[in-house]
Design brief:
- There is one protein chain.
- With 101 residues, the protein is of the alpha/beta class.
- A hairpin with an 8-residue loop joins β6 and β7.
- The longest helix is centred in the middle third of the chain and has 17 residues.
Length: 101
């Protein structure tokens, strides 16, 4: 997964680069392309074109990120500073996960 935290045309450049390098997913953190009207609509359409043509999975724009608390993954691709910790409970058969913000 490639994570993009850029604005404007840089998002498109990073998306095209991720696609060219074989990324399977793209996480776009900026809220939107709605900074300059018509140009932002064109950027959004171009991003969708890049994603669809390359088969990338897209999360965003406008997401806080992605977290997976599975013990074998423990993925935290967010800007929140959350930590994924392992928590054991006496009644649990296996360890559980807890995300702290």
């Amino acid at each position: 997964m490639s994570e993009v935290s850029a604005t404007g045309d840089q998002v498109l450049e990073f998306a095209a680069e991720a696609a060219a390098n074989g990324a399977e997913a793209l996480l776009v953190l900026p809220a939107s392309f709605q900074d300059d009207g018509v140009a932002s609509v064109a950027r959004g359409e171009r991003l969708l074109e890049i994603v669809r043509d390359s088969g990338l999975r897209l999360v965003g724009p406008g997401t806080v990120g992605v977290t997976n608390t599975a013990p074998d993954v423990r993925l935290n691709a967010t800007l929140t500073g959350a930590r994924v910790l392992r928590v054991c409970r006496a009644h649990a058969q296996r360890p559980r996960q807890l995300v702290l913000g």
